[in-house]
Amino acid sequence: MINEREALPALLDHLRHWQQRGAEVLLVDGGSDDGSDRLAQAMGFEVIHSERGRANQMNSGAAAARGEVLLFLHADTRLPEEADRLLLAAIDNGRDWGRFDVRIIGNSIMLPLVARLMNLRSRLSAIATGDQGIFIRRETFQQLGGFPQQRLMEDIELSARLKKISHPACLKQKVATSGRRWDQNGALKTILLMWRLRWAYWRGSHPDRLAELYR
């Protein structure tokens, strides 16, 4: 998380539910200056401090975690009911990793279509995005060296490496993620930008260059 103080109470309420079900919950702060880390600690959550950047933060969280299965959850994403049982069942059935389907909550009428296309593309390509709640066996995650240290597309790159080991468990139950990016910048503009970035990455563009375009 970075500067999520406004959204943090709702997130922590959500995470408390999973804590009470026995999950280890770690929040990784990438240098917030709005007191997000102090608020989370005051509410009884363990906070790990890390260098800014999603790959850095997720790798730091994984290094501190004690469980045998890792779930990476963005601060603006919420898990479906029974998420813990569902992902553990997939792992017990022999999968090394997986993700959930996604629905996007926002104002644009295009968002349901965007979510359906994301889920379909992910199922066909065996590539997951961070918004889908990626879960991985710890042993497999460590075998691959964690998320690659790059500023963008770290989830795409890790998925590409993971699918060489095994096909993901594509769970139909949906995480709910915020559509604020689409609402703030315009749905069509954001869709075109993401397609452009993915195409450029596939063609070999450096992630640092893509990160500048994304920002």
Describe the protein:
With 215 residues, this protein is α/β, with parallel strands linked by helices. The chain folds into two domains: 1-49, no CATH class; 69-214, no CATH class. 47% of the residues lie in helices and 16% in strands. It contains ten helices and seven strands. It has helices at residues 8-20, 36-42, 54-64, 83-92, 111-125, 138-143, 154-162, 180-185, 187-202, 207-214, and strands at 26-29, 46-49, 69-71, 77-78, 97-105, 135-137, 169-178. The strands form two sheets. A five-stranded mixed β-sheet has the order 3-6-5-7-4, sandwiched between helices. Strands 1-2 form a two-stranded parallel sheet. Helix 9 (187-202) packs antiparallel against helix 10 (207-214). It starts with 7 loop residues before the first helix and ends with a helix.
